[in-house]
Amino acid sequence: MTPHDDDPDADADHLRDECGVFGISGHSEALQLTVLGLHALQHRGQEAAGIVTFDGQQFHSHRDQGMVHDIFQASSAATARMTGHMGIGHVRYSTAGDTVLRNVQPLFADFAFGGFALCHNGNLTNALTLRQQLVQRGCLFQSTTDTEVIIHLIAISLYTTVRQRIIDALRQVEGAYSMVAMTDEAMIGMRDPLGVRPLVLGWVDGCPVLTSETCALDMVGATYDRDIQPGEIVICDDAGVHSFFPFTSRPSRFCIFEHIYFARPDSFVEGRNVYGVRKRIGAQLARENPVDADVVVPVPDSGVPAALGFAEEAGLPFELGIIRSHYLGRTFIQPTDTIRNLGVRLKHNVNAGEIAGRRVVLVDDSIVRGTTSRKIVEMIRAAGATEVHMRISSPPTTHSCFYGIDTPERSQLMAARHDMDGIAQAIGVDSLAYTSWDGLYRAAGEDHRDPETPQFCDACFTGDYPTPLTDKDGGTQPIQLSMLEPRE
Length: 488
What we know:
By secondary structure, this protein is α+β, with helices and mostly antiparallel strands. It contains 17 helices and 25 strands. The longest helix has 15 residues. It starts with 15 loop residues before the first strand and ends in a 15-residue tail after the last helix.
């Protein structure tokens, strides 16, 4: 979904992951640890959050719009009543329209077998098709999320056990998912057969933790055990952690953009340190695309590790030539064109003392629509740079994502509309270069990108979508279904 063009925040040249999940079972401080875990995952979603806990008798739920620290304050009445030894939580971005409370996760339902809470990172590419079928069968939807499709599929399943019902439901969905669920008796983790989105298992005080990233394990003092494998279902109950592989084994297609931008730099994803991968990408970028310059400047914050790698490989000084404000939420809609054009300065300001009179290499992770890149280049030139060269630590973003990433329609992607020279001219740089596909794969620990047996999901660069796009190809879903977008 594409935010409104009048919103300066919508101009950001970064794709956004749309959610993060966290769950813990068997711990007396389940709520407190879940809140801390969601704090660590706040970068994966900053517009809504929710937690469901279970105390052995009742489920307790609190969901709201806003940041984790505002929603789950220690003194609030809602937080005080959320007792229990199990808890799951979710943070979320919305991509368009209003963020409505009925869509904030975890979702909860009462089944014949008891209560069931579910939260989801990813996107189902046949959600609308399934939803229409379920509505025709008489299912009543309370939200507009694709996550609720899974709940209804579980509800109508003819199987008897919770595990069998979940497997039955997941066999019918397409797309990407990492999910954490909770019943009266267990916490359950699920990852799609291609492993597109991340999910890891850890332990704290002898209790299992499931979460999107290892930085959340660090936050709660948990030790990393392993990644949940593609197509794996894990059930954490009083008897331990049980693993099941009900789906046909397929080669992993983990999202390469987790390495480039989405994951926190201090996380390990798929066994790789994110910060280290990003520095290696920057070094590879410098080897592939050298430039005569005086200083390397990252576009903060996501461009910092790659810029460090670029500067070290190129033997150039690294300077924080752009300072980013960390005290800004979603920006307001500006009342006039003059003020609106200053919106980028709410987030970024040039450190002119490191820019004036110098040939500058700007390093960023991606160019999506190009609007913020153009404004930053204008600011760098206004500060006295004699040349401005842009280096991007990913290949050109030419296709939309349908697996849980906030992406504009393809017609709005700069690299889908222009060649390299056209992009350079549009954003106003003296030169522009991207990391090659092979270079990106090498930095991520692979020998090269093999089109015959791809190791990652890189559809946003290649258009090679690893699953059917049933809703899109069938005309039901022209663009990705937002989990928080109201729909008729």
